[in-house]
Structures are given as structure tokens and as C-alpha cells.
């Protein structure tokens, strides 16, 4: 059966890997990636992944944000090596910080398809990057040309999650330090936070912004939230609400990948504390204001920062392996 071909929209090209190397020095791992890595070994890889993501999205539109979040949780811990996909006790995936992650089945579905067409060729890490990239495009965002050639990690440890993960209660200083440790700038922090233009968060992710009154009702306690918006959140997340209750990250255009997120922040409608702090600090507010004024600027900036995110700590060459099953570190 021939794979279905789809028409691709214009691509935003990002060239961040043209590095000048001194003689006899090994190239950094990221410079060994290339957009044409599979041009001979698996030329249909991007179309096959895109079709898989599109099929899942047509059934469940929430899958887009889940795939984007899944990539972030993979890359921020020990690099973009697919280690968050591994199942089992003591793995990254088993850590409580990752218990709400989703979209694993989309990566596995694409992997099965690629193993049929190009056995032992495409890594789970590359599939996850492509899936997250396609998820943004499907929700109205830019299509980004990403370099490929990552290999999968053989180690996935829950102990690595907490020291590397970003918490929703972080200050700008804490956020900037965590991003800097991954080679990402303060501008990257603001730009990549724009991922919150789609998706939703559990009530527990922002419960610290509310208190329980004496009569048991939920009352806003954070002045950085616009009052009416805070009351809406309180009604959606009453005291005793189930851990499964969620609310949209973007109250205006929750299903569109656009720059509305930044307008929300300026209107004091940032859902998470780690969103709101971006407008309370002069180091990040200027960037928020600029991105709120121009969606084109946001999309161009997103393309650059997304590529930087997707190349954190990559394994290439003889490092890692090409796993047969994404959920298994050995298979």
C-alpha cells in the first residue's frame, strides 16, 4: 500500500547548524543533524509522520498540545533522545511530574509505520520532534524545517526529572537559570512559553493561586490575575475538584496556535504563575509586548527557538541507538 501524499504549506527555514569547525576537532552533536538526513534511507519519513499526527488530530484535537508538551518534557531532562517515551518503573515517564503526559500512542503508531517502510532507520527521538512540529502546524502555527539524525537514548531515569524540569511556581530567575542550563536564552524562554497558546492545564497546576475560604469555596488570592478571569477559574476548579479537571491555557483562542497568549499575559490572564511572571519582570515583559503586537514575529521567533529546543543534548553518530519500540529502552 502506497503512503498517502499530502500537500505541505510553505516552510519557515531556519539555518542554525552551519558551524565552522577547527581541523581535527569533532563536530558538536547538533551539527551532525541535517534536514536531509533521511533523504536516501527513508525519504517519506516526514509525510508518514505528518499523516499519523493528522489522523490522530482529526479524532482528538487535544493531541496537538500533548505532543508539543511531550517533546518539551523529553528535551529538557537529558536531551532530545526519546527517553521520556520509555515505560517501566523508575523511568522518566513514571515520575509524578510526567503522569499527565499524553500522545505516546501517536509516536508509537508512526514508529510502527516507519518500521514497515524503513526498518531500523528512524529514531523515536526524531519521530517525536517531527510529531511536535506537525502538531503546531495543524493548529495554525508555522511549519518549521527541523534537522534530523537524532539517536535514541538507552537510559531513562526518574531521578533525572525533578532536577531538570520546570515548575509552574518558578520565578523568572529560576526559569531563566533552568533554560540557560540547556543553552536557551531568556528570549527563548518567552518564545517557547508561547506553546501555552494551545492545550489545557489541570486545576492542580495553578491551585496555589487560590485559597479555600471558611465556607469551603475557592477564592482568588493572586493579584496578578484579572479579577473576572480569576473568578471564572475558581468556578471551573471548585474545592474538591477531581484531579482530572482541566481548563484551557488560552481563554480566547484555545485551539489555535497564535500570539494570543501574549495578549492574555498583558491582560493579566496568564493561567499559570510561570506565565504571569513573564509580564511582571522587565527582562521578559518587553519581549512579551513585542510578540503580542506581531504574529509574524512570533512565528519567526518560534521557528528559531523550536529548533534550539529540539537539538538540546542530542545523540548522533555512534551514540545511542535506533530503538525498535519507543516504549522500550532495549528493544
From TrEMBL:
The record marks 69 as: Transition state stabilizer. GO terms for biological process: hydrogen peroxide catabolic process; response to oxidative stress. It is found in: Secreted. This is Peroxidase. InterPro entries: Haem_peroxidase (IPR002016), Haem_peroxidase_sf (IPR010255), Peroxidase_pln (IPR000823), Peroxidases_AS (IPR019794), Peroxidases_heam-ligand_BS (IPR019793), Secretory_peroxidase (IPR033905). Its EC number is 1.11.1.7. Ca(2+) 2 binds at residues 197, 250, 253, 258. It comes from Musa troglodytarum. One of its GO terms (cellular component) is extracellular region. Residues 32-330 form the Plant heme peroxidase family profile domain. Disulfide bonds join 42-118, 75-80, 124-326, 203-237. Ca(2+) 1 binds at residues 74, 77, 79, 81, 83, 92. Its cofactor is heme b; Ca(2+).
Amino acid at each position: 500500500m502506497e503512503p498517502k501524499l499530502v500537500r505541505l504549506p510553505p516552510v519557515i527555514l531556519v539555518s542554525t547548524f552551519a558551524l565552522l569547525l577547527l581541523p581535527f576537532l569533532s563536530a558538536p552533536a547538533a551539527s551532525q543533524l541535517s534536514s536531509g538526513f533521511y533523504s536516501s534511507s527513508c525519504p517519506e519519513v516526514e509525510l508518514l509522520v505528518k499523516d499519523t499526527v493528522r489522523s490522530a488530530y482529526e479524532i482528538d484535537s487535544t493531541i496537538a498540545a500533548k505532543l508539543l508538551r511531550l517533546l518539551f518534557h523529553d528535551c529538557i531532562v537529558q536531551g532530545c533522545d526519546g527517553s521520556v517515551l520509555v515505560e517501566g518503573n523508575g523511568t522518566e515517564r513514571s515520575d509524578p511530574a510526567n503522569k499527565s503526559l499524553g500522545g505516546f500512542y501517536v509516536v508509537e503508531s508512526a514508529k510502527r509505520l516507519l518500521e514497515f517502510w524503513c526498518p531500523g532507520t528512524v529514531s523515536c527521538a526524531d519521530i517525536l520532534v517531527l510529531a511536535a512540529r506537525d502538531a503546531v502546524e495543524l493548529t495554525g502555527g508555522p511549519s518549521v524545517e527541523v534537522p534530523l539524525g537524532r539517536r535514541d537514548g538507552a537510559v531513562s531515569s526518574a531521578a533525572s526529572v525533578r532536577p531538570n524540569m520546570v515548575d509552574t511556581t518558578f520565578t523568572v530567575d529560576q526559569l531563566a537559570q533552568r533554560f540557560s542550563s540547556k543553552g536557551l536564552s531568556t528570549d527563548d524562554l518567552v518564545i517557547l512559553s508561547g506553546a501555552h497558546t494551545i492545550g489545557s492545564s489541570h486545576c492542580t497546576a495553578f491551585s496555589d493561586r487560590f485559597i479555600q475560604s471558611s465556607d469551603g469555596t475557592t477564592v482568588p488570592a493572586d493579584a496578578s490575575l484579572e479579577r473576572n478571569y480569576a473568578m471564572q477559574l475558581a468556578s471551573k476548579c471548585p474545592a474538591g475538584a477531581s484531579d482530572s479537571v482541566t481548563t484551557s491555557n488560552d481563554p480566547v483562542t484555545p485551539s489555535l496556535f497564535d500570539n494570543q497568549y501574549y495578549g492574555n499575559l498583558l491582560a493579566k490572564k496568564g493561567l499559570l504563575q510561570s506565565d504571569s511572571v513573564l509580564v511582571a519582570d522587565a527582562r521578559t515583559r518587553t519581549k512579551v509586548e513585542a510578540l503580542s503586537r506581531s504574529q509574524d514575529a512570533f512565528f519567526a521567533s518560534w521557528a528559531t527557538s523550536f529548533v534550539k529546543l529540539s537539538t538540546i543534548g542530542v545523540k548522533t553518530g555512534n551514540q545511542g541507538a535506533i530503538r525498535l519500540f519507543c516504549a522500550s529502552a532495549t528493544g
